[in-house]
From TrEMBL:
Lineage, opening ranks: Bacteria, Pseudomonadati, Pseudomonadota, Gammaproteobacteria, Alteromonadales
InterPro entries: SpoIIAA-like (IPR021866), SpoIIAA-like_sf (IPR038396), STAS_dom_sf (IPR036513)
SUPFAM superfamilies, A to Z: SpoIIaa-like (SSF52091)
Source species of the chain: Shewanella sairae
UniProt xrefs under Pfam families: SpoIIAA-like
Domain of life (superkingdom): Bacteria
Name of the protein in question: STAS/SEC14 domain-containing protein
């Protein structure tokens, strides 16, 4: 029996009011994946008055979202979008670059697509 693996892994580093967030998405994301990840992000950001977030999003194993999970993603972006100063998404599928362009509508900071992690990381640290 093959189990379908999906969900997020997350890393959060904080230096005063700056956050460095790393996310890796795997499989087709579900509503329950967002129920698990949202409180972690909310809790980390609640401790700082005006957090400034740089995020590295690894979408190389992302296959997409269930409809309810896409809605959850939008809500999370609307809630914290003004706290992100840079988001680098790296992936390996054409639709991911389009998704990055759409995501820019909901984020106050810069958002850019990359096809490799090294370039994405370098851009975040400029």
């Amino acid at each position: 029996m093959n189990a379908l693996r999906h969900g997020f892994s997350i890393g959060i580093e904080r230096v005063e009011d700056e956050f460095f967030l790393t996310l890796k998405a795997k499989g087709k994301l579900t509503h329950s994946d967002y129920l698990a990840i949202t409180p972690v992000i909310d809790s980390a950001l609640s401790e700082v008055k005006q957090p400034k977030i740089k995020a590295l999003f690894d979408a190389t194993e992302l296959e997409g979202w269930e409809l309810s999970a896409a809605w959850d993603d939008l809500k999370l972006g609307l809630k914290h979008g003004n706290q992100f100063i840079k988001i680098a998404l790296y992936g390996n599928k054409g639709w991911q670059e389009t998704a990055t362009k759409i995501g820019r509508w909901f984020v106050a900071g810069e958002m850019k697509y990359f096809d490799n992690e090294a370039d994405a990381f370098a851009w975040l640290n400029e």
